[in-house]
Amino acid sequence: MTIANWLYQTALSWPNRPALYEGDVLRQTYADLLQATCNRAAWLRTEHGVQAGDRVAVFAKNAPEYIEALHACWWIGAVVVPINCKLHPREAEWIIRDSEAALVITQSGTLFAEQADIHEAALCMPVRQNEKLTPPAPVSDQDLAWLFYTSGTTGTPKGVMLSHGNVRQMTLCYALDVDAAHPNDHMLYAAPMSHGAGLYMFAQIRAGGAHLIPASHGFDSEEIIGLAKTRGNLVFFAAPTMVKRLIAVSKAQGYTGEGIRTIIYGGGPMYANDINDALACYGPRFVQIYGQGETPMTISVLGRDLVADQSNPRWQARRASVGIAQGAVTLAVLGADGTAVPPGVTGEICVQGPTVMQGYWKNAQASEHALNGGWLHTGDLGHLDEDGFLYLTDRSKDVIISGGTNIYPREVEEALLCHPAVFEVAVIGVPEPDWGEQVLAYVVFEHGQSASVPELDSWCRQHIAAFKRPKRYEFVKDLPKNSYGKVLKTDLRTQAASEAAPV
Ligand code: AMP
């Protein structure tokens, strides 16, 4: 079954229901959204020669045309490659080439104008109107819907292959465990639609709820509070850092969450103080999910009642957990020998179930490694308690999560190492109240050479996405290493923590 079928059926059942708002302005009913999707599907096929199975990359900010663009691809059986709009065009280009995309849709339509072999079109380009309304092309459950690039610790992005079956199961699990979608909801997209926020659109499409793209096309606390007051029944996904910022602004305004129905948070650690604060301000409007690209949004869940519970003797510990296994998956914490460890013992979090990816695009070795023994190995470390609640203790890799977005130290290190004055570098994440973590680079210069912080900063801006560049630098004579010559990042973290501690 194609995931585009939900839009088709809802538009037939409820053509006049509001489907899409931009800020407070109604842009499309479901009948309009269906028509726009069919227009765009015809445009993809006839103007751009896109065929079933072809990849279409979308490298754009959240926009009112985003939902129809994605559905137009599925309408003709094509595969969407959503690219984080914050990536550097060079990084996006790598993904476009690796996925062998037949077309890339960007805001301007001219971003890759100098690359003759990249076929590009603008997201808002006028398309022929009033194309015939046809149902979406049939596909099998295994056919790919969403090819999502995540970076490995090696710094090379990997394409996570998600099928129509994977996305359907994720959506069923959303409805079962995360939130029941209602026709009078407004699903707000404050976080990037190329990621979890976009993946979570389907339950609302099925329910005939409205989708709401903020006029800023991004995250702005005051705007969200304004929309909660005017539109009401807001539901949205937010990284923990967004929740924290929203609560700070709410407290300053004396606003207590009216008009917000549900905030789904996840994608990075939520600190106990922050969720306690959020609950004190808004009451029980929060659901936590833990997932990853390889089993999108679907590993564990801490439902609304569990987040807010104060009746269980262990409620405080539970609130700091990432909840219980979602209904569609089996969760296990495996030890080094590949067998399950008892409750309380830390091991690698592994997942089985119908949301687990088909593998990595053109990367059999990485797929085998990640799916070894029939389990998805998440690379996250944690433990279960006696009641089945999962606690994340650490990430086995050194990924930095800043503002809910993953930053892979190796990528940053490689960019800095290309600078002629840099001899060695180690990049770590250090706790930072607003963003969760910030990027700190320890730099050793070539003998007799040096570079200033602004120089290194502008170097990084030229080579990697701006959000990945270090916010702090420490210039050191050498890096701590073990006997194999491997840099000891744990020592650097301890050093950074002791430097940050008040004296
Ligand atoms: P991504 O594949 O970019 O979505 O990143 C997934 C990673 O984010 C996971 O493997 C975890 O390390 C982290 N993560 C996701 N959800 C949570 C959560 N609720 N709490 C803490 N870390 C999380």
UniProtKB/TrEMBL annotation:
Q: Which residues form a coiled coil?
A: none
**Record-listed E.C. numbers:** 6.2.1.44
In this chain the AMP-binding enzyme C-terminal domain maps to 411-486
Q: Name one GO biological process term.
A: fatty acid metabolic process
Top class in the EC scheme = ligase
Q: Does the keyword Acyltransferase apply?
A: no
SUPFAM superfamilies, sorted: Acetyl-CoA synthetase-like (SSF56801)
Q: Which InterPro entries match?
A: AMP-bd_C, AMP-bd_C_sf, AMP-binding_CS, AMP-dep_synth/lig_dom, ANL_N_sf
Q: Which UniProt keywords apply?
A: Ligase, Magnesium, Metal-binding
Query: What GO MF annotations does this protein's record show?
Result: medium-chain fatty acid-CoA ligase activity; metal ion binding
Its needed co-factors are: Mg(2+)
Reaction catalyzed: 3-(methylsulfanyl)propanoate + ATP + CoA = 3-(methylsulfanyl)propanoyl-CoA + AMP + diphosphate
Task: Tell me where in this chain the AMP-dependent synthetase/ligase domain is found.
Answer: 9-361
How is this protein organized at the quaternary level?
A: Homodimer.
Q: Which family does it belong to?
A: Belongs to the ATP-dependent AMP-binding enzyme family.
Q: What is this protein called?
A: 3-methylmercaptopropionyl-CoA ligase
Naturally occurring in which organism (per UniProt): Celeribacter baekdonensis
